[in-house]
């Protein structure tokens, strides 16, 4: 078995040389074009549309990938190497935007909702990695009922609800919200074509609605998957192998942003004991989208995402996994552990290569073309506008 340090070096080297190759291809793209056909354009972060194996049925629709990041989950200050959640978020950005095996083929942006405690330096790093930084404010109930209930014991309870600001991304018709501790095996683009990931008509039957909650939107979307019971399951998991087929995981779900939907979920958050605060935003959303309510959630194909990953899931072709890369997987499968570390060190190598090599070929690398990613940052009262 290879020594961990040697494995780490190999993956960093692979990422570094991937950047070097792309830079050289950009430098010599005209000459190369006369001799070889590349599966990607040397001056673009996207695959040539003629070679796109993941086309969307409606390529003009504005959709997005998004995640949520808060520094309250980190105890390491500005020591980025030891901040596992920050590293996980960078890994997700790398896989969604840059990794040749997993990146978007349809220019789908990756938005990171950042709470006020995320430093400017970290925001700048994530923007440099290619993400669009969207600052959000804290979102907490207007009373302390969640604390009094005894359910919200985690220190992060007061900011996790800020994930709900994703409903304010109304520039996009649909958004896939992905927890930062998620890894990919292949592109997620075509999840937007999943039959269960389409907008639904709200059922306004008075028997299903409650007068103390804000009005419902005319249409809605909440598509997700139920969590498996543990690592011993088939692929894809069956109804018998999930904890509760009527309860979804809020670490991976599709939604339709709207002002009405945002106001509705916030109104529910402020009603004492309307839902159990044990899992906070997950229980809130499961209440709002209960199967016997006016906006029942729909189940995505379980090949899109899974928790409690095992090697059979990897071999079967699961697209993504909601797993903490720095922890021992419940399956204890070496193949799963190797995959976690491979993604981490490929990411490190890619960005290290880009950081060290950028500027050495300024004549041949336009500022707007990755692998020198053009990043934007949405302006807010507590953040500067970044253009990298």
TrEMBL record:
Name of protein: Nucleotide-diphospho-sugar transferase
GO molecular function term, any single one: transferase activity
Keyword Membrane in record: yes
Domain of life: Eukaryota
Record's keyword terms, sorted: Membrane, Transferase, Transmembrane, Transmembrane helix
Residue stretches spanning the membrane: 9-27
């Amino acid at each position: 078995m290879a020594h961990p340090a040697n494995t780490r070096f190999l993956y960093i080297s692979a990422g570094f040389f991937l950047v070097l190759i792309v830079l050289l291809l950009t430098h010599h793209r005209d000459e190369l074009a006369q001799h070889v056909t590349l599966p990607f354009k040397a001056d673009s972060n996207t695959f040539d549309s003629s070679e796109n194996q993941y086309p969307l049925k409606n390529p003009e629709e504005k959709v997005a990938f998004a995640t949520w990041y808060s520094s309250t989950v980190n105890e390491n200050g500005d020591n980025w190497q030891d901040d596992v959640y920050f590293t996980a978020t960078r890994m997700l950005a790398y896989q969604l935007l840059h990794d040749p095996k997993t990146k978007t083929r349809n220019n789908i942006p990756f938005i990171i909702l950042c709470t006020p405690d995320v430093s400017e330096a970290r925001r700048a790093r994530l923007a440099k990695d290619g993400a669009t930084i969207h600052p959000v404010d804290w979102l907490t109930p207007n009373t302390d009922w969640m604390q009094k209930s005894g359910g919200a014991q985690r220190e992060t309870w007061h900011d996790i609800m800020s994930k709900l600001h994703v409903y304010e991304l109304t520039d996009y018709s649909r958004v896939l919200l992905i927890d930062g501790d998620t890894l990919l095996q292949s592109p997620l683009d075509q999840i937007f074509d999943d039959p269960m990931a389409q907008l639904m008509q709200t059922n306004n039957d008075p028997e299903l609605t409650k007068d103390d909650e804000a009005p419902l939107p005319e249409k809605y979307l909440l598509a997700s998957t139920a969590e498996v019971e543990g690592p011993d399951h088939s692929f894809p998991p069956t109804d018998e192998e999930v904890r509760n087929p009527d309860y979804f995981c809020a670490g991976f779900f599709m939604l339709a942003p709207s002002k009405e939907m945002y106001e509705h979920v916030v109104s529910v958050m402020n009603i004492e004991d309307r839902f159990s605060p044990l899992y906070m935003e997950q229980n809130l959303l499961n209440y709002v989208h209960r199967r016997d309510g006016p906006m029942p959630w729909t189940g995505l194909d379980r090949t899109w995402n899974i928790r409690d990953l095992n090697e059979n899931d990897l071999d079967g072709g699961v697209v993504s996994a909601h797993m903490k890369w720095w922890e021992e997987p419940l399956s204890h499968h070496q193949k799963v552990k190797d995959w976690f570390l491979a993604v981490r060190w490929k990411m490190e190598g890619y960005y290290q290569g880009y950081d060290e090599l950028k500027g050495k070929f300024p004549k041949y690398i336009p500022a707007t073309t990755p692998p020198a990613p053009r990043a934007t940052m949405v302006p807010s009262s507590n953040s500067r506008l970044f253009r990298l």
